[in-house]
């Protein structure tokens, strides 16, 4: 289906507004944990499942995205995901107890898990390759900003209203998105009916087990045998899942595309960039509160400058990638990561809030130059029919490694060893720079030819 420039912009804007709102729900509850603990009279470890369960269900449904896009028109699929999220949000708002609230959160997580790879695939396929950098820069603005501003929005709302108001905010915005989507969203892709592989779906449940184990590492004791059994079973299921995808003529997920040059680097670099972004949004509020003795509200507000810079830079970094190529832009991104983590490590002894804010801004600026340009680099190495599989693989890896980063940072942090966290992620991003230098940048060659 051919779209005019105006209709394409409205289409993309509607997708991004819905995705932005859903993305906020992923990170917004961390500041509300104490409120939930008092309201339901539960410990923090139980309340944390509002986020953990959300992320688990997200991760396990991401591999289903290519099959859903092949077999269902995108417009009804998108509208259904919006309705499912809204219903889940209503359940959360009126939940009489915590288990019912979890049901609503899992419904929200399902919608986000399917939507994340789907909307990126659609945007990539309807955008000319020479404009993908700037468009995906806007996508990065949505993803990165939502992750960063989620805790800020919930913190501000909780200052004046109850916790239900956080979810009422999602409800109002997504109801408006649904109405807008009725007029602006279309189904631009041709359907190709494929069989639903229940066996692969069952095997993919190993993702849940793996993420569960990762999230439980910091709570494990010497007698946590059940967790090790879960890890063992999960790894077996994932091994069988990978082997089945590589052998089937029509797999649920085309894992063989990881052999394609630049796509493999795109997956790795996107994930490594996301690991730094999600870590800085989790660790820095703790640093502000525990080391600089700031209140939760002001520790959240201290994230605003970095989030604002990330938002401002994302589209500009994409435009720059379209002009000069992805390799130099991604290299700049990981260079900024190295500078930001290095400064935190060297200057944290000053205990200055302004130094910490500047370092956070440098790290999030690095994400603007690295994450979505790396995603676009990977997508550009694929044919259009493989893009849904590529987007699903990138989103799944990013989610798993993002969860791993949170646990890694939490375990290393212990009772306040922030310097060890800063050093760990500095080393990780130095290694990532080595991968960035391996990119074969065809965009740069195309730009040179055009000149």
TrEMBL record:
Keywords: Membrane, Transmembrane, Transmembrane helix, Transport. GO terms for cellular component: plasma membrane. One of its GO terms (molecular function) is transmembrane transporter activity. Its main location: membrane. Residues 11-444 form the Major facilitator superfamily (MFS) profile domain. Gene3D superfamilies: MFS general substrate transporter like domains, Multidrug resistance protein D. It is a multi-pass membrane protein. It is found in: Cell membrane. Pfam families: MFS_1. The chain crosses the membrane at residues 42-64, 76-96, 135-157, 163-182, 194-213, 225-242, 263-288, 294-313, 325-347, 353-372, 393-414, 420-439. This is Transporter, major facilitator family protein. It comes from Lentilactobacillus hilgardii (strain ATCC 8290 / DSM 20176 / CCUG 30140 / JCM 1155 / KCTC 3500 / NBRC 15886 / NCIMB 8040 / NRRL B-1843 / 9).
């Amino acid at each position: 289906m051919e779209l005019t420039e105006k209709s394409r912009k409205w289409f993309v804007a509607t997708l991004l507004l819905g995705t932005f709102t859903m993305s906020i729900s992923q990170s917004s509850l961390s500041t509300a944990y104490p409120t939930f603990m008092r309201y339901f009279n539960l410990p923090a470890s139980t309340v944390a499942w509002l986020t953990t369960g959300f992320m688990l269900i997200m991760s396990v449904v991401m591999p289903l995205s290519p099959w859903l896009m092949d077999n269902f028109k995108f417009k009804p699929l998108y509208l259904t995901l919006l309705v499912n999220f809204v219903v889940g949000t209503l359940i959360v708002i009126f939940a009489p107890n915590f288990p019912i609230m979890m049901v609503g959160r899992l419904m929200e997580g399902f919608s986000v898990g399917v939507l994340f790879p789907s909307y990126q695939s659609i945007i990539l396929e309807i955008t000319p390759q020479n404009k993908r950098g700037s468009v995906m820069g806007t996508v990065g603005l949505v993803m990165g900003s939502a992750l960063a501003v989620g805790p800020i929005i919930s913190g501000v709302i909780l200052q004046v209203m109850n916790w239900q108001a956080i979810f009422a905010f999602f409800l109002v915005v997504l109801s408006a998105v649904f109405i807008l989507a009725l007029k602006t969203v279309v189904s631009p892709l041709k359907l190709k009916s494929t069989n639903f592989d229940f066996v692969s779906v069952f095997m993919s449940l190993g993702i849940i087990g793996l993420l569960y184990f990762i999230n439980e590492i910091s709570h494990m004791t010497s007698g946590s045998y059940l967790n090790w059994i879960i890890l063992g079973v999960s790894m077996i299921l994932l091994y069988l899942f990978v082997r089945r995808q590589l052998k089937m003529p029509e797999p649920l997920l085309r894992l063989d595309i990881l052999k394609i040059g630049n796509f493999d680097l795109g997956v790795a670099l996107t994930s490594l960039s996301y690991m730094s972004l999600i870590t800085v949004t989790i660790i820095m509020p703790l640093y502000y509160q525990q080391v600089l003795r700031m209140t939760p509200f002001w520790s959240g507000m201290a994230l605003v400058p970095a989030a604002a810079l990330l938002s401002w830079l994302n589209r500009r970094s994409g435009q720059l990638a379209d002009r000069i190529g992805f390799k130099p832009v991604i290299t700049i991104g990981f260079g900024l990561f190295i500078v930001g983590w290095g400064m935190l490590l060297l200057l944290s002894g000053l205990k200055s809030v302004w130094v910490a804010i500047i370092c956070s801004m440098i790290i999030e600026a690095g994400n603007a130059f690295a994450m979505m340009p790396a995603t676009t680099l990977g997508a550009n190495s694929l044919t259009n029919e493989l893009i849904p599989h590529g987007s699903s693989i990138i989103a799944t890896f990013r989610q798993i490694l993002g969860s791993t980063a949170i646990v890694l940072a939490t375990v290393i942090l212990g009772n306040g060893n922030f310097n060890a966290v800063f050093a760990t992620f500095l080393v990780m991003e130095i290694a990532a720079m080595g991968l960035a230098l391996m990119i074969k940048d065809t965009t740069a060659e195309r730009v040179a030819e055009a000149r």
